[in-house]
From TrEMBL:
Pfam families referenced in this protein's UniProt entry, alphabetically: GerE, Response_reg
Keywords, sorted A to Z: DNA-binding, Phosphoprotein
SUPFAM superfamilies: C-terminal effector domain of the bipartite response regulators, CheY-like
CDD domains: LuxR_C_like (cd06170), REC_DesR-like (cd19930)
Protein name: Response regulator transcription factor
Stretches assigned to the HTH luxR-type domain: 133-198
Sites bearing 4-aspartylphosphate, chain numbering: D54
Record PANTHER family: TRANSCRIPTIONAL REGULATORY PROTEIN DESR, TWO-COMPONENT RESPONSE REGULATOR
Length: 200
């Protein structure tokens, strides 16, 4: 029996995935939660075999959950089910130790098959995305990504500096590096391009 924890912030999708997996004889949905923090608490309490999660969620994102699972050395495999058909997201997911990456518009039976494959120690990655993922590398480093994300949320250099415990000059340097690497004119264009590519 494959024991699954489901994390998805959209109630209708969460209900549908839970019902879908519940029809499989060899899969048991232990719980279905709406945000990353709840998922982290339930992970530790229930110790599932597989976490099925979206990328974008309130609290912790699916990628942050995967990173935390890897850091803590928990024996939980992570399968991401998302609308983000972007190679940048897949690359970051693989870097975070994710075992599966499926798109929400894939046929329903693919999810159960993916869970079985992952449980056996394999990987289940959307094939078209897998091809794209290696065609264009993410030029940003972690700190540039962090600073650019906050700038895109409307924070000033001073506010970003305070939040990340950096000097304003260092923040401006990171923003300048990100803008240069992405070949755009300003921080807003850099943020938009990086979001579009799945690098944020």
């Amino acid at each position: 029996m494959i024991r699954v924890l489901l994390a998805e912030d959209q109630a209708m999708v969460r209900g549908a995935l839970s019902a879908l997996l519940g029809m499989e004889a060899d899969i048991e949905v232990l719980a279905a939660v709406a945000d990353g923090e709840s998922a982290w608490r339930e992970l530790q309490r229930l110790q599932p075999d597989v976490l099925v999660t979206d990328i974008e969620m309130p609290g912790l994102t699916g990628l942050e959950l995967a990173q935390r699972i890897a850091r803590q050395g928990l024996p939980v495999k992570v399968v991401i089910v998302t609308t983000f058909a972007r190679a940048g997201f897949l690359r970051r997911a693989l870097d975070a130790g994710v075992s599966g990456y499926l798109l929400k518009d894939a046929p329903a039976e693919h999810l159960a098959q993916a869970l079985r494959q992952v449980q056996r120690g394999g990987r289940a990655i959307d094939p078209q995305l897998a091809l794209e993922a290696w065609s264009e590398a993410d030029p940003l480093n972690d700190r540039e990504r962090q600073v650019l994300r906050l700038a895109g949320e409307g924070l000033s250099a001073g506010e970003i500096a305070a939040q990340l415990h950096l000097s304003q000059g260092t923040v401006r340097n990171y923003l300048s590096e990100a803008i240069g690497k992405l070949g755009v004119g300003n921080r807003i264009e850099a943020y938009r391009l990086a979001r579009q590519k799945g690098w944020l």
